[in-house]
Write a structure and sequence with these properties.
Chain A has about 240 residues and is α/β, with parallel strands linked by helices. Chain A is built from 6 helices and 14 strands. Helix content of chain A is about 20%, strand content about 30%. Helix content of chain B is about 40%, strand content about 15%. The chains are: A alpha/beta (about 240), B alpha/beta (about 270).
């Protein structure tokens, strides 16, 4: 129904919307249910760091609960909640524990949070093999109106770049043909990035934000149609022969 | 299996409709059942070039909207057998061209024709996109000037990325270059781009070079596809172009300056 309401343009703005979000919460790993022991330990903790217990949201984790209570109806989650609140904590829900415990918690009206193991969030990323930065290779002419971007790495074009086309890379740009369009290398600020081409007839060349337009490129007759490179030196764009 | 060919260019006024008319007529002359469709909804021209403007009853949009059937709208050419024309609507605009509608009409035409020639409007908007979307092959018409070449480059990029073949990951649309309004002596003087210049920029195979010719304007006003004009350079060039399209290996004519002999220089002409 909520989905459908978006069809009606005259509908007033909704009073709220729901969005997912991630929070860092303190988790209280409960080892036993002895109310007296819990209260004693709590008092000590609060004394150590009073500022920490200032309406601090906590999740109660039941996974490490050593001895499941003999009688489940003895487990009084409400009184546990009251105890925590009395010491400046704001319990927001329960996590883990066996199904019987969870049923009791649900009966007491306490929200259940998803199992920490099922989320897979604790898996450490595999750092043994760093992913190599790949060049993007375009095996055809880049035509007028086309825009090609190589994020993170180099862009290699096995053909010409037409006037009105745009080739962009975080790294270097190699054009194995005439460069007639725009070429922007090192767009994320890499001042070491270069542009290489078989013939420099570009509309614009740029490295790390320093640019020159066609009018300012103006090669001499000896350089026209020759393989050229463009690089930055002392914050200035230098246009040079590829072969010396 | 019918082949759908789009005649396109990006830029206007380069000779798309002239090429569509002569290309379709040439295919039909050689015995292929051919239909040529005007996609320029709202700016109907093909009927004039084909000389059938006084026989238009129903049009392409009528069929898309189910207001008429194909047999009612197709105009049979009086001069060439096997040739039919599907005119555009003059009273509607390009928004009337729906992808589903165009596909339905093309599928129906595939049953009865071997070649379906789609005469594209200029631009890169809906009309042009619909004309090229279902194409198997494309004739890209260019004049030897930088703006025309750049626009053709743009339309080639669109053919390679936004046609049905591109979207479905099938074999790409087969591209052919048609260089129209070419004047070798002006290219020699550097007034216009040469054949080599254009081929170097566009990088697609050359199907034909059509020389600049006063006959094109005359025949267009007379409603006769120039390919039917005997003794015309442009007509002969279109004839060669059709033969090449059908697989014949013919040398390109009209691309070099003709050296005038002593007598010709004396008496003029040529």
């Amino acid at each position: 129904m909520l989905l459908r309401s978006s069809r009606f343009a005259a509908e007033p703005a909704p009073p709220f919307e729901l969005k997912g979000s991630l929070f860092t919460l303190t988790v209280l790993h409960l080892f036993q249910l002895d109310r007296v022991a819990i209260e004693r330990h709590l008092a000590r903790k609060v004394k150590q760091a009073p500022s920490f217990f200032n309406n601090t949201p906590v999740v109660i984790d039941l996974e490490d609960l050593a001895e499941p209570p003999g009688k489940l109806d003895e487990v009084d989650f409400n009184s546990l909640y009251d105890l925590l609140r009395g010491h400046g904590m704001a319990p927001v829900g329960i996590r883990n524990g066996n199904p019987e415990l969870q049923a009791v918690a649900r009966q007491a009206g306490l929200p259940m949070l998803p199992d920490s193991r099922s989320t897979g969030a604790t898996r450490k990323p595999d750092r043994s093999e760093p992913t190599p930065i790949r060049s993007r290779i375009i095996s055809h002419l880049v035509r007028s109106g086309q825009q090609i971007y190589a994020p993170d790495g180099d862009l290699v074009v096995l053909g010409a770049v037409s006037a009105g086309a745009e080739v962009i890379a975080d790294g270097n740009i190699h054009v194995y043909g005439a460069l007639r369009g725009r070429a922007l290398a090192g767009v994320k600020g890499d001042v070491e990035a270069r542009i290489f081409c078989q013939s420099l007839e570009a509309e614009l060349i740029s490295i790390a934000g320093r640019y020159r337009i066609s009018e300012e490129i103006d090669l001499g007759p000896a350089d026209r149609g020759k393989a050229m490179q463009v690089h930055l030196a002392d914050d200035r764009l230098i246009i040079d022969h590829l072969m010396r | 299996m019918a082949t759908v060919i789009v005649v396109t260019s990006g830029k206007g006024g380069v000779g798309k409709t002239t090429t569509s008319a002569s290309f379709a007529t040439g295919l039909a002359q050689r015995g292929y059942r051919t239909v040529v469709i005007d996609f320029d909804v709202g700016l109907r021209n093909l009927d004039l070039i084909m000389g059938c403007e006084r026989r238009v009853v129903y049009d392409f949009i009528n069929i898309i909207n189910g207001e008429a059937n194909l047999n009612q709208a197709l105009i049979r050419d009086k001069r060439v057998e096997n040739l039919h024309i599907l005119p555009a609507s003059q009273t509607r605009d390009k928004e009337a061209l729906t992808k589903e509608g165009v596909e339905r009409v093309l599928n129906e035409l595939r049953q009865n024709f071997e070649y379906i020639v789609c005469d594209s409007p200029a631009g890169i908007e809906r009309g042009a996109l619909m004309a090229l979307y279902f194409a198997d092959e494309a004739l890209v018409v260019t004049n030897p000037e930088v703006s025309s070449v750049r626009d053709s480059d743009r339309i080639l990029g669109i053919l390679a990325s936004r046609s049905r073949r591109a979207e479905q990951g099938e074999a790409p649309v087969k591209e052919h270059l048609v260089l129209a309004r070419y004047a070798p002596e002006r290219a020699d003087r550097g007034d216009m781009l040469s054949v080599e210049d254009v081929l170097e920029i566009l990088g697609i195979p050359l199907l034909g070079v059509i020389p600049e010719s006063p006959t094109v304007l005359q025949s267009s006003n007379a409603g006769v596809p120039v390919v039917l004009e005997d003794g015309s350079d442009a007509g002969a060039a279109y004839g060669d172009l059709v033969d090449r399209f059908l697989g014949k290996n013919l040398p390109h004519r009209f691309i070099t300056t003709q050296k005038k002999g002593f007598l010709k220089r004396l008496f003029g002409g040529g």
